[in-house]
Write a structure and sequence with these properties.
Number of strands: 16
Number of helices: 1
Helix content: under 10%
Largest sheet: 8 strands, antiparallel, barrel
Strand order of the largest sheet: 7-10-11-12-13-14-15-16
Distance between the termini: 32 Å
Shape: globular
Structural class: mainly beta
Length: 254
């Protein structure tokens, strides 16, 4: 995406095992990707247990919704049903990719993410608000992270968050959507457009309903005053001006 706009500064129960005969201890596991429960039959095959109660007592009596209740179709596009969806940071990634020495892509992430996606009956009237805690930034190198959090870049001591608030949603090509909004970093607000794909919807084993999106854009960091750089004797600069932002978002229906 190309940034074409003027930026603004604020300074101005019983387990169910089907017909399984257990001859080995039931193994249960809860992990960040969901629930797994397995047991071993006399034949030696491993079979997934069907009760959630063996792994999470809070699911006792829970009802898992049909996936079809989360979806609708508009203009031959599958989209979520209208409603408010709260971003789940445990299953959401916000990543940025920049170039070092003009040759190598360096990837970092900001795990402290919160926000709400509001899907309207008319999808073009939908709205997104996201807040990132920039101090959580992690690029895999402590020295680099320290500089990125410092005054050369995000200056988290004075500007601990960055935000995105959508202003427009339009239909894109090939089942994509274009979500334009105001991104504020270091009290400077610039318009950004993300190309967004709806990745689907499902019901979790805990009884809640979830939707997923992926999105990406490319921005010029100079627009927000993140202009630190070092000229190279061989030409070019130490840190590329263009930064790609990639999102994988899972959100829970309110």
């Amino acid at each position: 995406m190309t940034l074409i706009a003027e930026c603004r500064s604020s300074m101005d129960s019983t387990p169910v095992y089907s017909d399984l005969t257990i001859v080995a201890p039931l193994q249960t596991r809860v992990n960040p990707w969901g629930i797994a429960a397995t047991a071993r039959s006399r034949s030696g095959t491993w079979t997934r247990a069907t009760s959630l109660e063996t792994v999470h007592p809070d699911t006792r009596g829970a009802t898992v919704a049909d996936q079809s209740t989360l979806l609708r179709t508009r203009d031959d596009r599958e989209i979520p049903v209208a409603g408010a969806y709260t971003i789940d940071p445990a299953h959401t990634s916000v990543e940025f990719i920049g170039r070092h020495l003009m040759i190598t892509k360096v990837r970092g992430r900001i795990p402290d993410v919160s926000g709400v996606i509001t899907i309207d009956e008319v999808p073009e009237r939908s709205h997104v608000e996201v807040t990132l805690g920039v101090a959580s930034l992690d690029s895999g190198n402590a020295d680099r992270d320290g500089q990125l959090r410092g005054p050369d870049f995000f200056d988290v001591a004075n500007h601990p968050t960055m935000t995105f608030t959508s202003t427009q949603v339009t239909v894109g090509e090939s089942d994509t959507w274009l979500v334009t909004g105001d991104m504020t970093v270091r009290d400077v607000t610039c318009p950004v457009t993300f190309e967004v794909e709806f990745d689907g919807a499902n019901a979790s084993p805990f009884g809640d309903q979830r939707i997923g999106f992926s999105a990406a854009t490319e921005v010029d960091r100079d627009a927000w005053g993140l202009s630190f750089n070092v000229a190279l004797e061989t030409g070019g600069v130490l840190v590329g001006k263009k930064v790609r932002i990639e999102l994988n978002v899972q959100a829970v229906a309110s």
